[in-house]
Amino acid sequence: MARLSIEQLRRQELAAAAYEILQEEGIAGTTLAKVAERAGMSKGIVLHYFKGKDALLEAVMRHANALLRDEVIALMAKARTPRERIAAIVAGNFSPKFFKPEICNAWLSLCAEVPRNPTFARIQRVIHARMRSNLLSGLAELLPPERREAAVIGITAMIDGLWLRFGLNQEGLGQEEAMAQMEAVMSLHLGARGAGRIKRHSA
Amino acid sequence: MARLSIEQLRRQELAAAAYEILQEEGIAGTTLAKVAERAGMSKGIVLHYFKGKDALLEAVMRHANALLRDEVIALMAKARTPRERIAAIVAGNFSPKFFKPEICNAWLSLCAEVPRNPTFARIQRVIHARMRSNLLSGLAELLPPERREAAVIGITAMIDGLWLRFGLNQEGLGQEEAMAQMEAVMSLHLGARGAGRIKRHSA
Amino acid sequence: MARLSIEQLRRQELAAAAYEILQEEGIAGTTLAKVAERAGMSKGIVLHYFKGKDALLEAVMRHANALLRDEVIALMAKARTPRERIAAIVAGNFSPKFFKPEICNAWLSLCAEVPRNPTFARIQRVIHARMRSNLLSGLAELLPPERREAAVIGITAMIDGLWLRFGLNQEGLGQEEAMAQMEAVMSLHLGARGAGRIKRHSA
Amino acid sequence: MARLSIEQLRRQELAAAAYEILQEEGIAGTTLAKVAERAGMSKGIVLHYFKGKDALLEAVMRHANALLRDEVIALMAKARTPRERIAAIVAGNFSPKFFKPEICNAWLSLCAEVPRNPTFARIQRVIHARMRSNLLSGLAELLPPERREAAVIGITAMIDGLWLRFGLNQEGLGQEEAMAQMEAVMSLHLGARGAGRIKRHSA
DNA sequence: TATGAATGAGGATTCATTCAT
DNA sequence: AATGAATGAATCCTCATTCAT
After folding, report:
1. pTM of this prediction?
2. What is the rounded distance in angstroms from the CA atom of residue C77 to the CA atom of residue C91?
3. CB A140 within 8 A of CB B164
4. In this structure, is the CB of residue D197 within 7 Å of any atom belonging to strand F?
């Protein structure tokens, strides 16, 4: 059941291959030829499944985001309190699966194209809106309305900033440190409200 | 007095033109032809003054950074206390002169190339080291050694995150809000140490 | 039967076109655009089949050499004695099909690049080794070992020299004269050993 | 006396520099910029003294030929017999000063352009005519008229062939061997006429 | 569905040449 | 005489995209 059509399968394979190339080569270096080769397909087929390079990169953006979204969903499923839900959202963004220099940089590359690519802009907007809504649903029970917006911005900006710095891949920042920074920002906005520590997968 | 040689002048003009194009078109869209046209020069002359496209973009990165550095220096000159010095560094990064979507995005574009461009990486490292050292010199009198590093990371990451978000040019974030977020982060790390408010040009 | 794949066909067509252009315009004048036009193809396809200009010229060198080699093989097949085999090798190099000013000059152009083109150098080495080995196999039965080397050098150098002079396309040298010179050189080294006259196709 | 004007001096310096570059980089690699740098002059001055690149290369051809000519003249001055005069011409072409791979190759490069460069063709013709006339003047006393032409062609072609092969810079050919080959060719045409050995500088 | 042949636009780069100083 | 700034043509090459099979 839920068998993927061959078309959906091919599209996923191509998006995954393009995601890999994107991490290694950047946007300019992500050529259709390289993607096809990585996916073990012919060059022509790429444009059979995607209207053009932009459509392929759009799929990459969705693909990458879906991976992150699933991680967040999985972590949120274990969350019991509002504070834990917020912590889960944050922790998802710093899961070892995603918080890697190449991935952060790939994401950076896509973001850098947003002003010139309306589709990217729309996807980015949707992604941000989801994170915002997730965070707000958690904050609703923790903060008065007038303070929620600032908390959302503070948390998301810090996530972005740590991703950016990590994407630059310079020494002096690891996942441990990143999570510590996030905890600090959360406590800045939430104080002692809710639980104490993030990521108590077993407690 | 202090007349720029024609070479220095041309290099500056070209870097400035390239900076403009970069803001409008991104890295891939920044072609030598466009830069030359914007600068009102011939295509050939660009490579008379710069060894190649990379060297030109390198000059752009230095150019953009120099503008920011000068702003920070100017603000720091007015600072009287360690806390004010830190505030000046932060405020420089959010001066209306630089905190514009196009500029933030241009910067993002350059950062996205860091992993594949050793020169960019080096410049980025130098820039970060300077900011770090500036911040540390202010923090030296405010925090015990073991807490300074985290403060530096927290402040720089938040700056980066706000720039990134601003570069995405989506509604809901302005300079006011950005500075408020920065104040919150600074107070998170510094508490009430030093002065109270940033940028009290008259007080 | 034995149908050439379209790829092999195109590569041959392009190499042949490039060979023509090379004869007319020299190496520097052999541009991809001219080759494509001569072959009746688009500029892009040239680099679809050849990695770059060098690879194309390499194919040209092999192409030209293959033509000469086939001629020599055909003539050698008719040779009955060692002396005739040597004469066949020599005669192949002065067959009216190849001993033309444009072809000699094209070959000169390629040789002139040998010191700066490792691939050319390798091919040239292979070609020379083949001729050398062909000659030596004929000489083995005609000369004592210590005199064979000098004979090979004498014969090949005279071939080269006549090609060079013919490539300069100045009056005063024709195929007749060239063959007479070669006969003289052969008799210098071989004396009256073996048969008397070259190319006695019917005798 | 015979002071060179500054113009003549500069022209000589530039031709010499171009000759060096030609040996290292081939014709295509011999750019005006490199020549100017090698000569320690500015790029502009090259075209002040030479009408264009072709005029410069023409000067190079004359320059190289003048060096060779002087060498031959010097050797001929010591020659006492017709046979010695011929030997001197030959020996000049294999003087260690000129018989170097780079020089042979540079000459090859120039020859390869002859069919497309009327000036080169003319110079080449003049050079060849001089050598021919030199040889003929020696042969006049040694051979009957009907055999002189073949001797000239045989000698010059062998010189060219050995130069070409030496320019390819492949193992197996040195100056010793080259001179031995030349002696063989000379004796082929001259028999025992005249003196026995070439290059008896002291005897 | 899938291939890969073919196209053509565009881009970086090189270089001879011109020209103002 | 000399410099080097400036130009623009030409070249190699890359790549997205189209198309016939």
Report:
1. 0.90
2. 13
3. no
4. no
Contact C85, C138 (CB under 8 A): yes
Q: Report the C-alpha gap between A92 and A131 in whole angstroms.
A: 11
What sign results for the dihedral spanned by CA atoms B65, B71, B77, B78?
A: negative
Q: Which residue is nearest to nucleotide E5 (CA to C1')?
A: C45
Closest CA to A86 of A155, A158, A184: A155
Chains touching C, CB cut-off 8 Å, 3+ pairs:
D
- Confirm if C181 and C154 have CB atoms less than 8 A apart: no
Task: Give the tens place of pLDDT for each residue, C152-175.
Answer: 999 999 999 999 999 997 777 889
Tell how many helices (H) and how many strands (E) occur in chain C.
9, 0
C 45-74 → D contacts, CB under 8 A? none
Q: Which positions of strand E lie within 7 Å of protein CB atoms? A: 1-20
Helix (H, G, I), strand (E, B) or coil at B85: helix
End-to-end CA distance of chain D: 36
Q: Contact at 8 Å (CB) between C150 and D184?
A: yes
Can chain D be said to touch chain B, i.e. do they have 3 or more Cβ pairs within 8 angstroms? no
pLDDT mean across residues, chain D: 91
Classify domain D63-194 at the CATH topology level.
Answer: Tetracycline Repressor; domain 2 (1.10.357)
Residues A115 and A131: beta-carbon distance below 8 Å: no
Query: 3-state SS of B158-202?
Result: HHHHHHHHHHCCCCCCCHHHHHHHHHHHHHHHHCCCCCCCCCCCC
D189 interaction partners in chain C (CB closer than 8 Å): 184
Do the beta carbons of residue B85 and residue B134 sit within 8 Å?
yes
C117–chain D Cβ distance below 8 A for any pair: no
C-alpha–C-alpha distance, residues D106 and D100, integer Å: 10
Query: Taking CB atoms and an 8 Å limit, are B160 and A160 in contact across chains?
Result: yes
Average pLDDT over every residue of C23-32? 97
Burial level of B181, CB count in 10 A (0-12/13-18/19+)?
A: buried
- State the Cα–Cα distance between residues C178 and C92, nearest whole angstrom: 12
Residue B50 φ/ψ, nearest 5 degrees: -125, 140
Are B and A close enough to touch, i.e. 3+ CB pairs under 8 angstroms? yes
User: Which of these, A129, A143, A136, lies nearest to A188 by C-alpha position?
Assistant: A143
Closest Cβ opposite residue D153 in set C128, C154, C173:
C173
Question: Which pLDDT score, from 0 to 100, does residue D5 have?
Answer: 84
Instruction: Provide the CA C134 to C1' F15 distance, Å, integer.
Output: 47
